[in-house]
Write a structure and sequence with these properties.
Blueprint lengths: L18 H17 L7 H4 L6 H7 L8 H17 L3 H9 L4 H16 L21 H16 L5 E5 L5 H8 L3 E6 L2 H13 L5 E5 L19 H4 L4 E4 L3 H7 L4 H11 L2 E6 L5 H7 L11 H9 L2 E8 L6 E7 L2 H13 L1
Parallel strand pairs: 1-2, 1-4, 2-3, 4-5
Antiparallel strand pairs: 5-7, 6-7
Helix pairs in contact: 1-3, 1-4, 3-4, 4-6, 7-8, 12-14
Length: 345
């Protein structure tokens, strides 16, 4: 992240005014994720100004005090904040404090090394290996990949969202078809594996991010508008929902019409994979619960999709009960024709 509006000439002797902000926005969240639990990244949704250092100090394990960087920039920093909270004299002293250039460079170098020393190994989550353990055989996998590439190329535009991207197999197919892809997944380990692969491949056309589609990021900050909600920022030309619908419909109890409403809100085109109840993955989801989903059928999916989309293409995947759809949002073509007509007139 480069905050270009914060660039200014350095004044010799002046302290780094963004030190606290850096520790709360970057060091504290990364430390919590590395030492305690990767899911604590969600704290940034609750407080867009970063994780308070006293909170982070109370959550990280005691052994972090053995790390000089974390002892200095997190624990002792939090203690100093507590001591000086509400003291106007201390605030005035802080404003007049001076720091030599060599000490400032050492401070930033130590912060850099502390952050570089934080790491998290992506393992132990439910879906991090999902892409490699599906109900597809090799032939069906190849056929699905071919169809996804064909359907994505049939959707105009350059922006794609891969919802439930897992480790990014189909994000790469979309990117190779000329799209710039946001690759969303609920599983932190899957997103991390995808991110590391993207970095190693030196790709600039895929950005892996963590997202719970059933509970997306809301508008937060001042007036709920300082940082807009996910849906307000949505602008893809096509969304991919591959091996995703059954998780939302069965695990999260979202009716198919509501799922189609969301996809139609996000983009004019959608590539959707329907996984029927006879598929082993749906058997897995229903193994520990009662089947209360009478409308979760292929005909039920067609009916729900038909309320918001035209079905451009529907193709069964060879040697699999799954079906792949290319959908086009209803009304877009007619609106486009009217716009072209007005221009020609």
């Amino acid at each position: 992240m480069i905050d270009s509006l914060s660039f200014e000439p350095h004044e010799d002797g002046a302290p780094w005014v963004a030190y606290r902000q850096f520790c709360e926005h970057f060091l504290a969240p990364l430390t919590l994720m590395a030492y305690r639990d990767i899911r604590l990244s969600a704290l940034l949704r609750a407080d867009p100004d970063g994780v308070p250092l006293d909170l982070a100090k109370g959550l990280v394990p005691w052994r972090t005090r053995l790390n000089f960087g974390l002892l200095s920039h997190l624990h002792l920093h939090a203690n100093a904040q507590r001591r000086h909270a509400g003291n106007e004299d201390d605030g005035a002293a802080a404003k007049s404090a001076r720091i030599s250039r060599s000490r400032l460079i050492a401070l930033i170098g130590n912060l850099r090394g502390t952050v570089a020393g934080l790491s998290w190994k992506p393992h132990g989550t439910e879906w991090s290996d999902y892409a490699d353990n599906t109900s597809y055989n090799d032939r069906a996998t190849a056929e699905k990949a071919r169809l996804v590439g064909e359907f994505v190329r049939g959707a105009p535009g350059t922006r794609a969202w891969d919802l439930g991207a897992n480790t990014g197999r189909y994000s790469r197919i979309a990117a190779d078809a000329g799209k710039r892809v946001l690759a969303w997944d609920i599983d932190p380990a899957a997103a991390e594996r995808n991110y590391r692969a993207v970095r190693s491949e030196d790709r600039g056309d895929i950005l892996p991010l963590i997202l719970d589609l059933a509970n997306p990021s809301p508008g937060i900050g001042w007036g709920g508008r300082e940082r807009r909600s996910l849906l307000e920022r949505a602008n893809p030309d096509v969304v991919l929902a591959l091996a995703l619908i059954h998780h939302l419909a069965i695990s999260r109890n979202v009716p198919l019409p509501m799922l189609m409403d969301l996809l139609a809100t996000l983009a004019p085109y959608a590539v959707v994979e329907f996984v029927p109840k006879e598929d082993p993955m749906v058997h897995r989801l229903l193994a520990t619960r009662r089947d209360v989903f009478p409308d979760y059928t292929l005909d039920g999916f067609r009916a729900a999709a038909g309320e918001r989309f035209d079905i451009v293409n529907e193709t069964s995947i060879e040697e699999s009960p799954r079906v792949l759809f290319l959908l086009h949002r209803q009304g877009d073509r007619r609106q486009g024709d009217r716009r072209r007509g007005s221009v020609e007139a």
